[in-house]
Amino acid sequence: DLCGLWIDSDNIGLCEIIGSGTTGVVYKAVDRRSYHLYAVKCMLKARTPATRIHQAREVLLHQRVSGHAGVVSLRRFIEFGPFLFIVMDYYPEGDLHTALVKRNRYRGNPRLIKRVFLQILDAVGHCHKLGIFHRDLKPENILCNANGTELVLADFGLATHDVMSIEHGCGSAHYMSPEALGAAFKRVAYSTQHSDIWSLGVILINISCGRNPWMSSCPREDAGFRRFLREPDMLREILPITEDMNRLLKQIFVINPRQRPSIPQIKKAILRISSFTI
């Protein structure tokens, strides 16, 4: 716990822990000069060449996509003692997961669902245009602003510029595509771009229905997903979704990654949908 530590020539103070993950701990921080609040991610400096490459990649890729309205801004990068600090904008409303679980913010509001999901698509599309693929898209890595009407993409700890990857198991099982999970399919290189598309489909269900369609996209481990492979229309039985929504989800959740729709195609489909749930 580094609360009370001052960094950046004693100008930024770490106040409280607001999040943690596999790659670091995130603190709420204040700049004593401007009283501006920041979110500061703290990581231990890597001891191995592979981990040093990973940390440098996170900062580099986040810097590259920063500046877009739908991506949390990376303000500076600081080395201090044995630690690395990434200083970012602070969002007091927290993440999308909290908005879904504790505030039930979006269910039954198709206009708001459409608004925020299009923002997510714009942010991910921006990253993809720059050749950067997130690989850990989930509500916990999307931050909220303006009472949940504005969303921004965060946490590039697993992001990559590799179009094809052999790193399986990157991300959270609920959101990983079958090919990225790798458990029930041949562990061959997979398309990181198309894997992100799969994750977007799960997030759309989260926002619209407040739940996940399955625990894992591994048919050996998840009976629900196994049934979906046999009966793609089963989503309408377990979720209160409209036929238009079901049609889009079936296009996103195809096993062949190359057959999944592009982000512009998903945008067009979202704009045509008048209601996501029944």
From TrEMBL:
Keywords (A to Z) from UniProt: ATP-binding, Kinase, Nucleotide-binding, Serine/threonine-protein kinase, Transferase
Family label: Belongs to the protein kinase superfamily.
Binding site for ATP: 41
Record has Transmembrane helix as a keyword: no
Domain Protein kinase: residue ranges: 12-277
Gene3D superfamilies hit by this protein: Transferase(Phosphotransferase) domain 1 (1.10.510.10)
This protein's record includes keyword Nucleotide-binding: yes
Alphabetized SMART domains for the sequence: S_TKc (SM00220)
Name of the protein in its database record: Protein kinase domain-containing protein
Organism: Botryobasidium botryosum (strain FD-172 SS1)
One Pfam family named in its UniProt record: Pkinase
SUPFAM superfamilies in alphabetical order: Protein kinase-like (PK-like)
GO molecular function: ATP binding; protein serine/threonine kinase activity
